[in-house]
Amino acid sequence: MTRKKSKYRHAIINKNKYYFYTIRWFDITGDAGHATKEEFNNFECAIMITQGYLYYKDKKFIKTFASYDEKEEVFSDRNIIPRGCIIKMERVEL
Predict the structure, then answer these.
(1) How does the average pLDDT of the chain come out, rounded?
(2) Angstrom distance (rounded) from CA 16 to CA 21
(3) 3-state secondary structure string, the chain?
(4) How far is residue 41 CA from its own chain's centroid?
(5) Neighbour-count burial of 86, counting CB atoms closer than 10 A to its CB (0-12 exposed, 13-18 middle, 19+ buried)
(6) pTM exceeds cut of 0.85
(7) pLDDT, tens digit, for every residue of 29-70?
(8) What are phi and psi of 29, to 5 degrees?
(9) Measured between alpha carbons, how far is 93 from 83 in angstroms, rounded to an integer?
(10) First vs last C-alpha separation in the chain
């Protein structure tokens, strides 16, 4: 019996499979300068795009990484994003 190949991009690290995602999310935007009422009304949060492997998720947060060591269970380029800030998460296909 042959194993079915995953159609999604992923990495296997220490026998754990981590899927690759594109995540759109709201980020805080700040400004310390003076602004008119119109400028303030047009002031918006930045919409960020993060691409990386999904390490962990729960009801409050998701954790991602973009780099990892081939030989050891070591992760780099890490992010933690509150779930309430996430606009959309898409698993990336091969």
Answers:
(1) 95
(2) 16
(3) CCCCCCCECEEEECCEEEEEEEEEEEECCCCCCCCCHHHHHCCCCEEEEEEEEEEEECCCEEEEECEECCCCCCEECCEEEEHHHEEEEEECEC
(4) 29
(5) middle
(6) yes
(7) 999 999 999 999 999 999 999 999 999 999 999 999 999 999
(8) -120, 135
(9) 22
(10) 23
Euclidean distance between CA atoms 4 and 40, whole angstroms: 53
Give the pLDDT of residue 65.
98
What is the rounded CA–CA span in Å between residue 64 and residue 81? 8
pLDDT at 1 over 70: no
Q: Which two tokens stand for residue 63?
A: 């954790």
Both tokens assigned to 50: 């993060």
Question: Is the per-residue pLDDT at 81 higher than 90?
Answer: yes
Amino acid at 68: Y
